[in-house]
Amino acid sequence: MIEKKDISIVIADDHPMILKGLNEELTTNNYNVVGQAINGMEALELIMANSPNIALLDIDMPLLTGFEVIKKAKEKQVDTKFIVLSFHKENDYISQAKALQINGYLLKEDSFSEIEKCIECVLNNEIYFSRAFNADSLQSVSEDLKRIKHLTSSEKTILKLVSEQMSSQDIAETLFISIRTVEKHRSNIITKLELENTTNALTNWAYFHRNVIKEL
User: Fold this and answer.
1) How far apart are alpha carbons 69 and 10 in whole angstroms?
2) Closest CA to 11 of 65, 52, 64
3) What angle do CA 162, 168, 169 make, to 5 degrees?
4) Deepest in the core among 10, 55, 136, 183, taking most CB within 10 A?
5) End-to-end distance of the chain based on CA atoms, in angstroms?
6) DSSP string of 159-191?
7) Is the pTM of this model over 0.70?
8) What domains does the chain contain, in order, with CATH numbers?
9) Mean pLDDT confidence for 18-38
10) Phi, psi dihedral angles at 187 (to 5 degrees)
11) How many CB atoms lie within 10 A of CB 54?
12) What is the pLDDT of residues 66-84, one digit of tens each?
């Protein structure tokens, strides 16, 4: 097991007191904090410059969100493991984290011991979600993502447009296809996602999952 002093960490949060407290906890416990950022752009620059073992990021930050930082860093193929630290417990955020294959998701209410447990797990190539999350919610999100992956490229395109609240008529005109073709795709999507075939069921589901769908 790698020693704490050899674990390099970048931390980012736009709340100065939270950032200060997190830094003090980490350094007091012998972790090597190599950079602190108060916005997403600074965080990305620090990650690219230092290639830390771990990046502990808030989700809601100016300039770039934590999710955007992770996406851009992954596109650059950095070796950093990413842990988000947030107040958000909603399934939409869990979905985005899982879709981005984020290594860890902690809540700001979690104890420092849980942060340490998370760091240990992700360095061992394990995925760690806060114990405060409901296991059923995590499972439900995972199943939704699996179903989305079974869609064809055409169905994913239709789903993206549905998530933007576009009607079948608008989708047909945008893609230069018939309304009948759009409706056939919608029917297939509903079946694959295991949704009830009711009015607006797909539209509502797609809108709720829009942040994940836009990454398809």
Assistant:
1) 12
2) 52
3) 135
4) 55
5) 36
6) HHHHHTT--HHHHHHHHT--HHHHHHHHHHHHH
7) yes
8) 4-133 (3.40.50.2300), 150-213 (1.10.10.10)
9) 95
10) -65, -45
11) 25
12) 999 999 999 999 999 999 9
Written as six digits, the tokens of 90 are: 């909603």
Distance CA 140, CA 26 (A): 33
Residues shown for the chain: 216
Tokens of 173: 């005109």
pLDDT in tens, 128-155: 999 888 777 778 777 878 888 889 999 9
Tokens of 77: 């193929």
Q: If pLDDT is split at 50, 70 and 90, which confidence band does 1 have?
A: low
Residue 33 CB neighbour total at 10 angstroms:
19
